[in-house]
Amino acid sequence: MVSRWVIEVDRAFGETQTQDLRIEVHVALGIAGNGRDMMDAAKFHAWETNSFPYRSSRMYLWRRLAGQNWFRNNETELRAIAADELAIIERSNRKRLQIQVASKSRAKLEPLAQEFGGRIEKLPRDWLKRSLRRKTNPLQVGKKKLSIPAGAAFGTGEHATTSMSLRMLEQLTRDWNRGWSIVDLGTGTGILALAARCLGARRAIGIDNDAIAISTAKQNARLNRIRGVEFRVADVRDWKFPRAVDVITVNLFSELLIEIAPKLKSARWLILSGMSRAQELDVGRALTRNKIDIVGLLRRGKWVAILGRRR
Do β-strands 245-251 and 201-208 pair in parallel, antiparallel, or remain unpaired? Predict the structure, then answer.
């Protein structure tokens, strides 16, 4: 995964409009964004995948508070040390950011503390098990309710990017015959791929380069008794796309989305999210260059979802 920008919203957004939808999305607390619903840094990492989710794992967390100006001035140096382990947490009612990096080794975090200050904490051994105890409201998808634990991975349906994608997917496919196909890039918890099966997809593939996310997606498929979804650990830059697919859903950073735009033409329809309004124009230009028309837009707060169609 690319470095993460996390947003925690400390007030309820209420429910999405569902008068004409078969998907009810309850938007509540603990929301994270820019690619998928995210938890804090410690929950992002793919180490000790064979022990996921219940065996204990030692984890250390470096964190510090910083203003927007400080982060802009130090971002390059931070990324040089932390690479893709960097998580930036933004709370809606606070001006300062919380910057975090997690590691199995305290020694790996020492350079951050020496260079930027902050503190290093040792997390309890059952940190991952504790995260799995958090609950969210079930999602009504067609005739089935999906249960996605809030602490499981990256995407419970509560963040705007996910809920807008679900809404677009339902509206797009509501009159389709059963048997269509979908590829979900940046699948996280697998919520979109699982929802697609509930809405009539015959073949569903979920791709994520984080092994914990894929392990969690498989667990969520078992939890909801949904079969027929293939989850794979892969980098979307290198993964060989199917020659033809009905729908590709993409919940990734805008930079990565733009990079893989030429590969998205294998789909008749695209549902793209994970971008902010400030990134909308650049994404739109990339789609136009690759002969993909924008036929629908949803905006909620700073977030945008795009419905695209191949020419």
Answer: unpaired
Domain encompassing residue 276: 139-310
Backbone angles phi, psi at 156, to 5 degrees: -115, -5
- Residue of 125 and 91 predicted with greater confidence: 125
84 and 186: one domain?
A: no
- Size (the chain), residues: 311
In this structure, what token pair is assigned to residue 191?
């919520």
Q: What is the pLDDT of residues 26-85, one digit of tens each?
A: 222 222 333 333 334 444 333 333 333 334 467 888 989 988 789 888 888 888 888 767
**CATH number for the domain harbouring residue 210:** 3.40.50.150
The mean pLDDT of the chain is 75
Task: With respect to residue 23, please indicate whether it lies within any of the assigned structural domains.
Answer: no
Identity of residue 302: K
- Strands (DSSP E) contained in the chain are 4-8, 14-15, 23-24, 26-27, 59-66, 86-91, 97-103, 119-123, 139-141, 144-146, 180-185, 201-208, 229-233, 245-251, 267-276, 292-300, 303-310
Per residue in 251-310, pLDDT tens? 888 888 999 999 999 999 999 988 888 899 999 999 999 999 999 999 887 888 999 999
CATH of residue 67's domain is: 3.30.70
- State how many domains the chain has: 2
Considering 113, 131, 149, which residue would you say is the last residue of a domain? Answer: 131
pTM score, whole prediction? 0.62
DSSP 117: -
Residue 192 amino acid letter: L
Cα gap 248→226, rounded to integer Å: 20
Backbone phi and psi for residue 282, each to the nearest 5 degrees, phi listed first: -65, -40
